[in-house]
């Protein structure tokens, strides 16, 4: 898990708290802020996952390319 995923999870949690607080107090503005924070957090978390998967794919491609080079040298 990378920092974008962690920050996304934290932002999502912050949004849930704001949403719940707004619901308890009847503060529609706070509920709306919570919804925005949750959406932002979800997007950031998904971005972090995609970034990590991309990095893993690049690393795997590099390993395979190095194996091919090593095999050609034999």
Overview of this structure, please?
There is one protein chain. 93% of the residues lie in helices and 0% in strands. The protein is an all-alpha fold and 74 residues long. It has one domain. Helix 1 runs antiparallel to helix 2. The model has no long low-confidence stretch (mean pLDDT 95).
State the share of residues found in helices, binned by percent: over 70%
Low-confidence stretches: none
Broad structural category: mainly alpha
Report the span from N to C terminus: 38 Å
The gyration radius over C-alpha positions equals 21 Å
Described by the principal axes of the CA atoms, the overall outline is rod-shaped
Mean pLDDT: 95
Report the portion of residues in β strands.
Answer: under 5%
Structurally, how many domains make up the residues?
1
Number of helices: 2
Q: How would you spell out the order of helices and strands?
A: HH
Sheet with the most strands? none
**Counted beta strands:** 0
Secondary structure elements and pairings:
Elements: H1 3-25, H2 28-73
Helix pairs in contact: 1-2
Summarize the structure.
This protein is mostly helical and 74 residues long. The protein has helices at 3-25, 28-73.
